[in-house]
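Ticket #4471: structure export looks truncated?
Reporter: QA, pipeline team
Priority: medium

Steps to reproduce: submit the single chain below to the structure queue and open the exported record.
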Amino acid sequence: MEIHPIANLIPSMSRDDYASLLANIRVNGLVELITVYEGKILDGRHRARACEEAGVEPRYRDLPDGVDPLEYVLSENLHRRHLTSE
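Actual output as written to the record:
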């Protein structure tokens, strides 16, 4: 599935972080669903790739109605990945 342009505003994971995510998905499967907006991945592009590599079926959810997609991506990623303005 194509990546939504808003998702690309967040930097890619480091190799080590991605390797940890991949290992976790191999052991536990996909825990956090991948969020889709306008038919494209809005949040979870690394999870989607890791699912593909691990042979795990990805699961998706649509962005809830009325939720601003940019605010959603910023909120989810700034907290979860401890990103800063740098």
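Status: closed, not a bug. The export was complete when the record was re-opened. Leaving a note from the reviewer for reference: Residues 15-28 form the longest helix (14 residues).
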